[in-house]
Amino acid sequence: MLKIEALQHTYDDGTVALNGIDLEIEQGEFLAILGSNGSGKTTLIKHLNGLLQPTAGRVLFGGKAVTQVEDREIFSRIGIVFQDPNDQLFAATVTEDVAFGPTNLGLTEAEVARRVSAALAQVGITKLAGKSIHALSHGQKKRVCIAGLLAMQPSVMILDEPTAGLDPMGVHALMHLLEELNRREGITMIMATHVVDLVPLFMSKIAILSKGKLLRCGTPRDVFGDAEALKKAKLHLPLVAELMNILKTRDQVNLHHIPLTVGEARREILRLLSVEDVIARV
Ligand SMILES: Nc1ncnc2c1ncn2[C@@H]1O[C@H](COP(=O)(O)OP(=O)(O)OP(=O)(O)O)[C@@H](O)[C@H]1O
Ligand SMILES: [Mg+2]
Fold first, then answer.
1. 3 state SS of 134
2. Which one of 7, 44, 172, 188 has the lowest number of neighbouring Cβ atoms within 10 Å?
3. What is the C-alpha separation between 257 and 62, in angstroms, rounded?
4. How remote is the CA of residue 10 from the centroid of ligand 1, in Å?
């Protein structure tokens, strides 16, 4: 669906933000982009719908360079939620902001109103509909940005650290909403995040960026099993995996693999306990 070929980006001040990225994103995937501050995540995201022009290389969407697809078409197919909501919101009220995209698509007033109220409900901010954008908290602004994206009903959703600034319930609700859109409607999801604990729960693939290069790409099990790559990218394991890894390496607990989630850890611990039960009984 999206193909990134030898992508390079050098900013005007000479900063090389991306240095030869090759990556393919299949339809229906849920991709996490991980990397430390300044590794190039936001720059890469801005190339995925042609907001930035590559210094070299290209990004193809359905076989066509994104920079050559008409803005209106690409923005309706590939939606981005920016890292900083202040870069995205510009209308006076919540409703006006969320309605802007669908109105621009030329939809009827009734359809725009339907999409806006559905999107506000999906992110739990129906009550803020008439509120002035300036009067919103940071977390509320993030939700308005996400609602604006949902109202466009894109086939690819790209979210740059969407959980930053959300309260724990908000993170939970947002991740389940994205999972549902991904699984039920087949929307391709791409999300830059620093929250490694979320990754094995929701994402099918991880791309690790380090200093503008793609350091590693694969399933959560592959990538979190590559201690060297994680260290190089200054990333850590999900907390549960960290604990299980200590039990395996320092305490020689006999684990078949390193569980990445609470559910996997629970199954592994129950397996060990039942083995010990058996040993105690013998
Ligand atoms: N407009 C710009 N002009 C010059 N350099 C820039 C610009 N935007 C980003 N950079 C530089 O490009 C590099 C990559 O930045 P980018 O914002 O893509 O990183 P990131 O991985 O998204 O980081 P973070 O986790 O902090 O959001 C950094 O070194 C940054 O300083
Ligand atoms: Mg960023």
1. helix
2. 172
3. 38
4. 10
Q: Which residues, 6+ apart, have CB-to-CB distance to 267 below 8 Å? A: 259
Closest ligand 1 atom, CA of 13?
Answer: 4
End-to-end CA distance of the chain: 57
* Token pair belonging to 236: 């850590």
> Which of 8, 16, 39 gets mutated to test ligand 1 (max ligand atoms within 8 A of its CB)?
39
- In this prediction, residue 166 carries a pLDDT of 87
pLDDT means per 10 residues, the chain with 282 residues, are 96 97 96 96 95 96 90 88 92 97 94 97 94 94 94 94 89 90 93 93 95 96 90 92 92 89 90 72 58
How crowded is the C-beta side of 19, counted as CA atoms within 13 Å? 12
Domains of the chain: 2-86+155-236 (3.40.50.300), 237-282 (no CATH)
- Does residue 61 contact residue 77 with C-beta atoms inside 8 Å? yes
Q: Which amino acid does the sequence have at 188?
A: T
CA of 226 relative to ligand 2 center, distance in Å: 23
Ligand 1 nearest-atom number relative to CA 45 = 18
Judge if the beta carbon of residue 13 lies within 6 A of ligand 1. Answer: yes
Query: Measured from the CB, is residue 37 less than 6 Å from ligand 1?
Result: yes
Residue pair 203/31 in contact (Cβ under 8 Å)? The answer is yes
- Tell me if 210 CB under 6 Å of ligand 1: no
Ligand 1 pocket member 251 (CB < 6 A): no
pLDDT at 277: 66
- pLDDT for residue 38: 95
